[in-house]
Amino acid sequence: MNLKVLLPFLVLTLLTVFALAYVLLTRQGSASQLPRCRSIPPRTHPWTHPGQSQLFADLNPKELTAVMSFLTKHLGPGLVDPAQAWPSDNCVFSVELQLPAKAAALAHLDRGGPPPAREALAIIFFGAQPQPNVTELVVGPLPHPSYMRDVTVERHGGPLPYYRRPMLRAEFVQIWRYLEEVELPKAPTFLASVLNYNGSTLAPLHSSANGLHSGDRATWIALCHNISGLGIFLHPVGLELLLDHRALDPTHWVVQKVFYLGHYYADLAQLEWEFKAGRLEVVQVPLPTPDGASSLRARVTPDPPLPPLQFSPQGPQYSVQGNSVVSPLWTFTFGHGVFTGLRLFDVRFKGERVAYEVSVQECLTVYGADSPKTMTIRYLDSTYGLGQNSRALVRGVDCPYQASMVDIHVLVGTGAVRLLRGAVCVFEEVQGLPLRRHHNYIGRHFYGGLASSGLVVRSVSSVGNYDYIWDFIMYPNGALEGRVHATGFINTAFLSGGAESLLFGNRVGERVLGAVHTHAFHFKLDLDVAGLKNWVVAEDTVFEPVAAPWNPEHQLQRLQLTRQVLSREDLAAFPLGSPLPRYLYLATNQTNAWGHQRGYQIQIHSPRGVHVPLESDMEKALSWGRYQLVVTQRKEEECHSSSIYYQNDMRTPMMAFADFINNETLLGEIGGFRDRGEGLLFSWHLGCPASAHPTREKFDLVAWVTASFLHIPHAEDIPNTVTVGNSVGFLLRPYNFFDEDPSIFSPGSIYFERDQDAGLCSVNPVACTPQLAACVPNLPSFSYEGL
Question: Where is the Copper amine oxidase catalytic domain (predicted)?
Fold first, then answer.
């Protein structure tokens, strides 16, 4: 090429490169010069209560340590750290907050009385006593304890037999050590040849509901392949053992039965003999590959795009102070029970209490399969600890990236305080739909609306194979929602049979059956609707045949309301599967501006659940699951619907939730009518007759809600069950509690008419978004210490 032509071409090319580089650099510079989003601290509000947080705050590390020191001093030097304890040792199993009596708490919160003594509840395993037992002690006052009192009989109606104790992590470790050292060596050829066992490639999965009689402590244990990074729950090998571990001395433990491919054997020695004799039908189970179907390792191309990010340009509109949350509309305190997990107290909307307590009570799963381990599963997850198994949450996945992360301290299963870093998160949830809106085109043209958002407090319980995401959500219209999502690994069984095995689920792997199971969650809703004294009202509709007033020869089917005051507990107990009133709410004597009793409606978001048959000898311990909704008188002695001691003795529970429902009055007298146990039925077209207004003292009531669903695992549950479609819960909605929708006062409300310029900030606040959000969010650096 001619040099005179080449030189100008090279110069032009260099100029083009410099120009492009300049443009890119200036663009990057302008992006980096965007201002940081301005954080506006949440405003203080007159309805905050500085002292309320301490009443319900979980015990802090100093208090937990003080209780342990006090117990060690007064129970003697024989206490062993439960992390190393044998069944024959004495140890402190757990220490957590002893909740104050409601009357004492309200006397302090509402009437300025002295705060009730701050106390701890300690559970002690006395395995070294002549009569081993479990004892519950209340220790106080904190932070400097000087007394303890035995409340075992007071709380449970009698002493707690030792076999009812929850299993320590140490006991799980001791069981596996016993199997590895004593039992598995009895079948070395079979294990190595058929299951590819090399001393570390198997791990145990336990059933529940130990034994067949009260007092048994015999557990079916399935063996699964254990490969680093894979969920063992998806890799059963078909071998299961029934271990009797009731003896306090592990040398006296014994395997009572062995199950393999549909057949039962006396022990592993018999299985080994049958195998060597060539009389045993076997299925070779290869080791799973690290990147197989059960792996959660990412299967995406390198450098994937970031997921959508939600952020608040002006910072959150709430503040977290200890365990107290304050927002422009809501205030509440939260706790985190070791066994029952997330709970709310003293929940107020604009300073007025809506609920005294909203809490999780129990989480139950019941399985079916043709293997003994899986068919006997009745997991009561409070026993394993919904709270202590709350793990650190991951920013940007478990919670929005800008969520407020709260640490939790627990003392359970070990003698030292354990930090659960970032186990609770609080955030504002933008839901991507309007809370309310209307586009009017009849008459004048205008638009009004409000984006839906909620204030969320969340924790996640990772109990064995399942992860339960617990949310309590508060909305600007005064509604409060409780919901739980189920995710994690499914529990499986080895698929050894043909069509018969598919009666219990779907095939989800080469030799893997996704076992059918039910989920049931129980919640306690201690509502205080405009005060303590409430009653229960059920409303529904009927079609009434009436003659058309303007043409009596024609008949109309007119829709009208029916209202029933549910005056006794039996009337306010709705069995699972029975129709619920379409509207059921707690009401008060106070009225709104339109003369209606102020109330809060209870809605349950749950498909039709499945409960164990009443004929089952375990049903009484699970009797809360009979009902989708119950309202009872509130009693301090009926504070929980389940117990951590039921898991290991379901056949003789100390108390049963069904016994809470004993036809006690929820009301007494209404006007001139005396309750005869039948409920009071009125059919009203408009308003409320004076005779329906209760005129005597009512009772403090508590509602109990069961939300449940059936899960038939399928291929899409591998590797994990997704949260979509696997959530249930409840909603508390104001029902004539206000004079109008309180969200009309929310600062995010917008309204504009046809002749207004909706692009002006002065007309439409949303129009300011491009200006206010033209900033770089203040994101915390990512860290995780939960593994």
Answer: 310-744
